[in-house]
Design goal:
- By secondary structure, this protein is α/β, with parallel strands linked by helices.
- Helix content is 32%, strand content 22%.
- The strands form 9 sheets. It has a 7-stranded mixed sheet with strand order 5-4-17-16-18-19-20, sandwiched between helices. A 5-stranded parallel sheet has the order 7-6-8-11-12, sandwiched between helices.
- α15 links the parallel β19 and β20.
- The longest helix is centred in the C-terminal third of the chain and has 20 residues.
- The N terminus is likely disordered.
- Bound molecules: adenosine-5'-monophosphate-propyl ester.
- Adenosine-5'-monophosphate-propyl ester binds next to α11, β24 and β25.
Length: 658
Amino acid sequence: MSTVPATAGDDLVFPPPPEFAARANVGADEHARAAADPEAFWAEQAGRLQWDEPWHTVFDGSTLPTAQWFVGGKLNVAVNCVDRHVAAGRGDKVALHWEGEPGDSRTITYAQLQDEVCRAANALQELGVGHGDRVVLYLPVLPETIVTTMACARIGAVVSLVFGGFSAEALRFRVEDTGAKLLVCTDGQFRRGQAVSVKGAADAAVEGLDHVEHVLVLRRTGDLTPDVPWTPGRDVWWHDVVDRQSTEHDAPSFDSENPLFIIYTSGTTGKPKGLVHTSGGYLTHTSWSHWAVFDVKDDDVYWCQADLAWVTAHSYEMYGPLSNGTTQVIYEGSPLTPHPGRHFEVIEKYGVTTYYTAPTLVRTFMKHGPELPARFDLSSLRLLGSVGEAINPEAWLWLHREVGGGRCPIVDTWWQSETGAAVVAPLPGVTPLKPGSGTVPLPGLAATVVDDAGRETAPGETGVLVITRPWPGMARTVWRDHDRFVKSYWEPYAEQGWYLAGDAATKDADGYVWIGGRIDDVLNVSGHRLSSIELESALVAHPRVAEAAVVGAPDGTTGQRIVAFVITRGDAAGASDAALAEELRAHVAAAIGPVAKPRDVVVVPDLPKTRSGKIMRRLMADMTAGRGGGDVTSLQDETALAAVETAWAAYTASRAGA
Ligand code: PRX
């Protein structure tokens, strides 16, 4: 188990600014009120939504670990996110300020969004998509990405968004695993200022998959990526089928437990798993937590900077903010293109009040110095947020001071693809903040830190984070692999019925949760979850690699960086290590995506293994972190570790000299 590093922030406490607390949505008694009767609390929050039929049972635990919430209730998620606000006379309110990477922009009101969603829903139905069918989106951050996601919810289709930076192979796995009927993509995408074509990758991803009936293609890069490959009959242009549709669409009601989306995430074993989230409970948790944690006000301009394909964006850039009728900024591009101050420019342009970001980005900004944010007027900001990994106190303090002007609380939100929405997070008008800690579980949520036997750890003692009571936003299963759902999360503490989150953690004397590293073989690179085993599988699929071990080494900007130790096949002799490293990086990028490229590739003669033949990644991770002295008693052959240490020392020395 990795240990939780001593933090510099645990002696610093930032109470809520009085003027913030005075206006906050949620007051100091909320934790106690929810704890007194969690089901009544969640029923009250579900009541913030529009139900077509009321539920008869708030929570049914008889089918755990597949919980059921608001059983018997019926609703339409898209109506809750869009139509409801128009019906309430708020149709002219801006839903989206979209900023494209090349500088183009669009502003869309809730009334316009409703028209767009209805058109898209009609188009999906014309293409044969119906209730329960799966639709995969391979789209950048565009209004149409949100429109299509909402259109799926409206007609009861299950949507799965795939990051545009993922390879054709990674996309294909998701299209195949979901058994999607429809793939929606663009002709091309902008990546760091360059227009790159996408349709070829989309074609490769669906080739030979009979269940894919259509590929719906949205024009984005146009003349910059000409010669879009086309399969007549299967491929259709968005502007041909969507634009001519009616803006009227009758939204049916769906059961509270109707599947809403599938999100793929890396686990301990080879293939990503598709977590299934459902409707009523997910939207309740997401909508309430967005309102409470981001202290949503009617005049807010809220910006979550995540790509729409990440879970962060599902909950806090789509379902959450839209259900609250929030005005949002969404931004297509890379944060550093065309210049490193682009995010601050966007905050100034739209008067952003709430900026939800990631530690890795904060550390990137820090490299440019405080002069970077100082060039812009950031006085509109009133609240900041962080997600994806533990934020180091230095980055927290920098964000607080240089971006937030010392006046904005920072909500550090701990959660996962599996949890659906925030679990450990402050209420900004209530919870005193400690830089680097997500603070305490939200009202209605119960999480703690325990040891292997399930005993709560003493303050400062490292254990694992568990969620001890079912909650509305929890994933219900892994798509087509329920066993994996049970085994991964629920078996370790089956006796207690607790959910194992997979993170090491400590609690301090005030009950604040401090997250450490993962307890499994999951890496966190710039807030992206990647599995060691998935990366190793990609590497050994290369003809020149016999064996591979992948570990995460500490990195000042990306949190962790990927280090791959590889044993080459005999015929690789003669190739320089540098050339091989480049080849393997390109190979992994093609298999998974550029985010998965190993930063360091070290050729080794052998790998340390247990007597049962399992690679001991922990020892190599300790070595790359400069920690020694790990337990080597279960090693099959100690000379293997010595050989890796020698290779690592030579590699780091050569890099230092380069
Ligand atoms: O290790 C924790 C880390 O990210 C993991 C979840 O990754 P994913 O499912 O991709 O969702 C990321 C966005 C919600 C967690 O198990 N993590 C996420 N947020 C935090 C965090 N670690 C510490 N502090 C956080 N605020």
